[in-house]
Amino acid sequence: MSLFETQSKEFQHRHIGPNEAETTEMLKAIGVASLQELIDRTVPPAIRMNEELNLPQAMSEAEYLQHIKEISLKNKVFKNYIGQGYYDTITPSVILRNVFENPAWYTQYTPYQAEISQGRLESLLNFQTVVSDLTALPLANASLLDEATAAAEAMTMFFNLLNKDQHHVTRPKFFVDKDVFPQTKDVVVTRAIPVGIEVIYGDYGSVQLDETYFGALVQYPNDKGSVEDYRDFINKVHSVGAYVAMATDLLALTLLTPPGELGADVALGSAQRFGVALGYGGPHAAFFSCKDEFKRSIPGRIIGVSVDAQGNRALRMALQTREQHIKREKATSNICTAQALLANMAAMYAVFHGPDGLQNIAKRVALLTQTLANALEERGYDLLHEYFFDTVVVKVNDATPFRQKAERQFLNFRYYDNQHIGISLDETTTPSDLFDIINSFVNDVDPVAYELQHEDTLDIIPTSLTRTSEFLTHPVFNTHHSETQMMRYITQLQNKDISLVHSMIPLGSCTMKLNAASEMIPLSWMHWSKMHPFAPTAQTEGYAFIVKELSKYLCEITKFDACSLQPNSGAQGEYAGLLTIKAYHESRGEGHRNVMLIPISAHGTNPASAVMCGMHVVVVKALENGYIDVEDLKAKAEQNAANLAGIMITYPSTYGVYEETVKEITEIVHSHGGQVYMDGANMNAQVGLTAPGLIGADVCHLNLHKTFAIPHGGGGPGMGPICVKTHLAPHLPGHVELSNQQSAISSQQNRNAVSAAPYGSASILLISYAYIRMLGADGVRKATEYAILNANYMLARLKDQFDILYTNHHGACAHEFIVDLRPFKKSAEVEAEDVAKRLMDYGFHAPTLSFPVGGTIMIEPTESEDKDELDRFCNALLSIRREIALIEEGQIDKKDNPLKNAPHTMFMVCSDEWKKPYSRELAAFPLPYVKTAKFWPSVARVNNTYGDRNLVCVCLPTEMYAEA
Ligand SMILES: *Cc1c(COP(=O)(O)O)cnc(C)c1O
């Protein structure tokens, strides 16, 4: 190959870990002659894809950056005054550089292993405190996907609480005020229909409520910018025994009486304007807070305070028993991946600015808005409302000339209709920006002049709704205000967390692969980051190109025909995909089909998503070898034939094997009129070798944050687009903005919206686009092959010392495999958890624990790890196996040993007292490699039950802090 030809493989060699020499050694260890032979032994011939994927030729990293720069320039960056839930903001550079662009933050996994996640747990606790303080409600979660889904979560929570008997629903109605954001209304309606909720729109001021209502949703400030006093309305709702959710705005709440003080039961919204770029719709963190009485039913993850084995304060995720992993179809929601990274950014924004800084930003916005309002009124324009925070709505006879003039000046306003123009100001608006805005409303002859209002004259917020209570009094929000302090605070937290910058994170089913710098860099460029999701299409051609191309590649990779990029996570993809199945059955007059078959081994989100679609879950058994029990499937499909909606399968199965029976399974379901949903979490074992479309599936979601290189961000963001066959394409999610813009291709365009923005967290689509463009067809297939090679190599190294569950008849696994640790419980009283915690002393994050089988770990190395790293991990596990052997042989105590006491903190090991029956060196430096790069867990083993019994999920108030 010439020097120039190798350039197209440049990224392949950067992305894939093992080099040629290592590959040869690894194949030898497995006992096969070539990679081809390994793949032939692993992937059943009946499902193989025979031709190369039709994807563009690979680009080098430099070529890609040039290319994506050119595409970015197709986007036109206007000043956005559109509002509607998305506001321009200034990401402080210290946060941009040290959090958003920092792999030590964005490559973290969800903090299930609390002892090596204290930094992000602390930051997420800060996020919860910000939300709880600003909304004045005691309990907050650590983010949801977007404002619209947060509203839908509130509705579902209320519905379930007040209709305990699902077969006898006495309160089916949910009131939604007419001035709630349109995209929120759509997502709420999508969620309401399948579970039988009736959404009633109206005017909160005049609606008649009765005991058939379970709840209500209002917006504060509302869709037209108006600040309304909801106190009487809230009382009215409570008097019929129903609950109130208030969609709101964190920046406004620094000036407005908070929802909790008005009596609201839930507050929710988007934390985007706390320093997170618009990004054409996301990713952004949504927030959700509520009264204490909802603590058993609040959706999403909650970070709580607990203690460690040494009695020290330690954080961890609280009340996990509510979640889908455990509760499955009875879970409070299907939320798994949320928006952790963006919640961390918003929290850091509050830490950096502090309560006064935030309030000053809000006051500036409000004063500019008041100035603008006065200037417009002076010029003879009528405004729609008297009280507002950042948004005015101007009445005009015909918006067209105003729009033309605004767009000539590169300004976007919001056009509610031809008589109402909305203007929303934000943190980035300067006094001089008002010239251009006002200029859009005057002739070009008179000079634009206006007087900036003074703070004392701020009268656009009524006194009855002016905030009087304090917020963010905790020291963390009143300390780190210089850049030096902020930089060090971020770094202090980061140093407590293991991420991919330290070592491999072999989490089965989660695909923690390289998130390459070249894939990430363009996200910070303003032509991507400053785009408003509802900007006119003439300005968004760059994004349109990415959407079109990426959809095409994903269809090619899955062998499907159409794609929706709307769902913001895998679980949302499941929900969206099942909705297409439901809509398809309905379109054929078979709306009664509501039984979803789900194998026992399925991920918890599968049954939770099915329930959201109003489906009835029937569990299918698994065989000894982990395969779906085809006989049981046949029987259940037959029994339920009349009402069969479909099946949800994961392929390769969650046990990490390619079931040879998969085509038979899909045929059985089809023959009884059902559709086949494929959970695409394991797509990293398929790309280029086989495809959902080839094995008989009708729809699948893809976790772009697994297979397609979007980083996990410590628990989000994610993207879960769905691909479908032609017959399901008409039922893909629509969006109100798409239907506005494309002059209604069909009147149903906004049906089935599942996210607030038309393309979900659009800006991170760039990462997956980059991944595919830099690898090309050959590279994405090789990535799959090496994922399989790496897994089989580790399996070969471990199989003599551990029981491996579920390999195929050649003894091969797919891209992951399960190590059974249950035997050690009997032989040494060692639990899987002990092994997970002991791995921390070796500098590693544990593999997936107890999924899909309790008492096991599931290892998925991914293609990005080289042989040395795989060996280090195997050596650590083998060394732990020897430690277990010492317990088995009675040489170390069953209760007091390195596994039970793991992880060992620096404080434990360095303290003057050491009474363990093993050495300090064994505790902290069990293998030589650990000495060169020791990662110290910052707390000892965390006590989960203590924290759940004493739920604290905000930073403690100052007084208590001082006492401690
Ligand atoms: C990760 C995963 C999901 C859920 O994806 P989220 O993005 O976390 O919602 C669903 N199914 C399987 C098998 C998974 O591994």
TrEMBL record:
Biological-process GO terms, alphabetical: glycine decarboxylation via glycine cleavage system
Superkingdom of origin: Bacteria
This protein's UniProt keywords: Oxidoreductase, Pyridoxal phosphate
Residues found modified as N6-(pyridoxal phosphate)lysine: 706
This enzyme's EC code(s): 1.4.4.2
Cofactor(s) listed in the protein's UniProt record: pyridoxal 5'-phosphate
Catalytic activity: N(6)-[(R)-lipoyl]-L-lysyl-[glycine-cleavage complex H protein] + glycine + H(+) = N(6)-[(R)-S(8)-aminomethyldihydrolipoyl]-L-lysyl-[glycine-cleavage complex H protein] + CO2
Gene3D superfamilies, A to Z: Aspartate Aminotransferase, domain 1, Type I PLP-dependent aspartate aminotransferase-like (Major domain)
Family stated for the protein in its record: Belongs to the GcvP family.
Primary role: The glycine cleavage system catalyzes the degradation of glycine. The P protein binds the alpha-amino group of glycine through its pyridoxal phosphate cofactor; CO(2) is released and the remaining methylamine moiety is then transferred to the lipoamide cofactor of the H protein.
Complexes and interactors: The glycine cleavage system is composed of four proteins: P, T, L and H.
Name used for this protein in its record: Glycine dehydrogenase (decarboxylating)
Species the sequence originates in: Flavisolibacter ginsenosidimutans
Protein encoded by which gene: gcvP
